[in-house]
């Protein structure tokens, strides 16, 4: 049931299009949505029954705000901007970028055919994406042999090897007319857009000519190229009679989860597929529309000439935003392909449900056990800290991050302690907590729902004091206490009370995983720092080796053993004088010095 505060705000909602932002108890934005009618859409969250992820979202909403827009199109664009800015927990979020390669014809005086991983607005012609790098490389090599452009680095007064092989038009030693490039570029674009008959006909003719001239090796090479065209380009079923590059989106939704399929149609054939699975808050059509806009907002995403989508999507607004036609096929192979994508989405979702049910108990279920035990509202993000040193030297701290019970390794952080020069757990905790959360507050980035310290009351009290008295932040802190066998035993509350979690519960297993992970990460970082410091200190004691020389050696070799094994010539190649190089060798290889002394005797 909605609170009195929310009930009052619901009465003030306008009958206008716009975006709404749902907030949790800490005023953190946890969901962003759009609506044609804000009043009807926002009220539906609190006046209707829900299940699954939507029910979890509603249970965490303590407040909301709305932003009115002039049109539905503005609401679409604003929603994507707000999702990218705030990264709400309950929204579909796509990672930026893709690793798929493209074939590019450069836009320059002497154009080149090359493989690129990034699409840039440089006037070049990009084709792709390709399912893998190998397929792109094979296609590139075929085109370079049949329709050569420039393969060399440019004018160099003499023909390059590629020119003699017939794979370069000769920009290396002569001025190539633009018309000659344009002729081959036209054929390359035609091939990349699906017209393979021309290249097969040309290759077959060249093969027959080579055979007649008894150039059998050349004929065999051309035969292999024809087979490659047949195997890689023609082996797939033709989707349509035209060569328009298309992307196709379809979905299947069940139990508040949406399964999305993306088919890439190039050269009139299906060349690649992507699949995504997300918990769903809004209607399936709204979620798919949001997914499509984020999909093409990613780095290296090249818009096709046309997009195919299911019937109920708002195609007019999407088309206006993306600037390309968006259609729903009514009949024929494209309609069959849309149905196939829907069937694939359904199969993947049904296959995943069982795994999701099992995994939920170990992740979000375990997270709820921990927050319930501490008397906290359900959260999603835990950050845990541990310190490491040997007899007070090489002091470091490390932080790991778990979101909904899963490690988020890209959020892990390492800290070399700057204000602590001896073993002091409280001082180490104060420094690392202040550095971490003063920065998050300054950058206005999301704060964790719970901080866990690997240790007892000393670490917990120090962290709590810095957060409350220095930073003014109200983030719950708890400790992970180990027993005499150095195994996870208890969860320590901020008031010093130990909570005896059931050792067989998922909450206890999660606590154990977090403690083991932060300890492993801190130890690994400490070993790395100690190793570097050990190498650096040995080098410092060698006469003639200053900071610059030390840095050169560290970057080049990384270990004392490798420095000792390096020859005098290799050391001198780094810009080290012969005398200093000899001193380094004798200092790190005392046996060489002894053997030289014996030889003198």
UniProtKB/TrEMBL annotation:
Q: Which Pfam families match?
A: GIY-YIG (PF01541), HHH_5 (PF14520), UVR (PF02151), UvrC_RNaseH (PF22920), UvrC_RNaseH_dom (PF08459)
Q: Which UniProt keywords apply?
A: Cytoplasm, DNA damage, DNA excision, DNA repair, Excision nuclease, SOS response
Chief site of localization = cytoplasm
Residues in UvrC family homology region profile domain copies? 248-467
Coiled-coil residues? none
The subcellular localization recorded is: Cytoplasm
**Domain GIY-YIG as annotated: residue spans:** 15-92
This protein's source sits in the domain of life called Bacteria
Q: Which InterPro entries match?
A: GIY-YIG_endonuc, GIY-YIG_endonuc_sf, GIY-YIG_UvrC_Cho, RuvA_2-like, UVR_dom, UVR_dom_sf, UvrABC_protein_C, UvrC
Name the family the entry cites.
Answer: Belongs to the UvrC family.
This chain's function reads: The UvrABC repair system catalyzes the recognition and processing of DNA lesions. UvrC both incises the 5' and 3' sides of the lesion. The N-terminal half is responsible for the 3' incision and the C-terminal half is responsible for the 5' incision.
What does the record note on quaternary structure? Answer: Interacts with UvrB in an incision complex.
The name of this protein is UvrABC system protein C
């Amino acid at each position: 049931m909605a609170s009195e505060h929310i009930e009052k705000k619901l009465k003030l909602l306008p009958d206008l299009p716009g975006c709404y932002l749902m907030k949790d108890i800490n005023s953190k934005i946890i969901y962003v949505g759009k609506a044609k009618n804000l009043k009807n859409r926002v009220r539906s969250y609190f006046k209707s029954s829900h299940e699954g992820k939507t029910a979890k979202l509603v249970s965490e909403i303590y407040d909301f705000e709305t932003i009115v827009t002039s049109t539905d199109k503005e609401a679409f664009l604003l929603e994507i901007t707000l999702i990218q800015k705030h990264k709400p927990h309950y929204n579909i979020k796509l990672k930026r970028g893709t690793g798929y390669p493209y074939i590019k014809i450069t836009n320059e005086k002497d154009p080149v055919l090359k493989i690129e991983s990034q699409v840039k607005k440089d006037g070049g012609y990009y084709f792709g994406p390709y399912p893998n790098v190998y397929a792109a490389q094979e296609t590139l090599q075929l085109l370079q042999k049949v329709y050569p452009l420039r393969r060399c680095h440019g004018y160099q007064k003499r023909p390059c090897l590629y020119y003699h092989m017939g794979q370069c038009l000769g920009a290396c030693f002569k001025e190539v007319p633009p018309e000659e490039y344009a002729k081959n570029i036209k054929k390359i674009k035609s091939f990349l857009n699906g017209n393979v008959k021309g290249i097969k006909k040309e290759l077959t003719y060249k093969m027959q000519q080579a055979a007649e001239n008894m150039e059998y090796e050349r004929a065999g090479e051309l035969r292999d190229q024809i087979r490659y065209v047949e195997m890689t380009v023609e082996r797939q079923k033709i989707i349509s009679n035209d060569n328009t590059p298309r992307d196709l989106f379809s979905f299947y939704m069940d139990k508040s989860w949406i399964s999305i399929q993306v088919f890439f149609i190039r050269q009139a054939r299906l060349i690649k597929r992507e699949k995504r699975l997300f918990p769903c808050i809004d209607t399936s059509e709204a979620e798919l529309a949001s997914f499509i806009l984020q999909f093409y907002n990613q780095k290296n995403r090249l818009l096709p000439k046309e997009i195919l989508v299911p019937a109920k999507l708002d195609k007019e607004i999407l088309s206006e935003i993306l600037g390309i036609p968006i259609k729903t096929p009514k009949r024929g192979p494209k309609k069959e392909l849309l149905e196939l994508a829907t069937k694939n989405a359904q199969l993947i979702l049904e296959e995943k449900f069982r795994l999701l049910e099992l995994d939920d108990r170990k992740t979000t279920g375990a997270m709820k056990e921990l927050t319930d035990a501490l008397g906290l509202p359900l959260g999603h993000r835990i950050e845990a800290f541990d310190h490491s040193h040997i007899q007070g030297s090489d002091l470091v701290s490390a932080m790991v991050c778990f979101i909904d019970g899963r490690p988020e390794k890209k959020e892990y952080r390492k800290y070399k302690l700057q204000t602590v020069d001896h073993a002091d757990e409280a001082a180490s905790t104060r420094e690392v907590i202040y550095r971490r959360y003063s920065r998050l507050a300054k950058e206005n980035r999301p704060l964790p729902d719970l901080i866990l310290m690997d240790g007892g009351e000393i670490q917990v009290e120090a962290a709590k004091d810095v957060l409350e008295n220095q930073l003014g932040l109200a983030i719950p802190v708890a400790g992970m206490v180990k027993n005499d066998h150095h195994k996870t035993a208890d969860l320590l509350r901020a008031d010093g009370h130990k909570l005896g979690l059931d050792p067989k519960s998922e909450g206890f297993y999660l606590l154990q995983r977090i403690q083991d992970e932060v300890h492993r990460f801190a130890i690994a970082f400490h070993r790395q720092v100690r190793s570097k410091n050990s190498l650096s200190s040995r080098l410092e004691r060698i006469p003639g080796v200053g900071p610059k020389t030390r840095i050169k050696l560290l970057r080049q070799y990384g270990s004392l053993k490798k420095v000792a094994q390096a020859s005098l010539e290799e050391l001198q190649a780094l810009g080290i004088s012969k005398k200093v190089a000899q001193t380094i060798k004798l200092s790190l290889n005392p046996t060489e010095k002894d053997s030289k002394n014996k030889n003198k005797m």
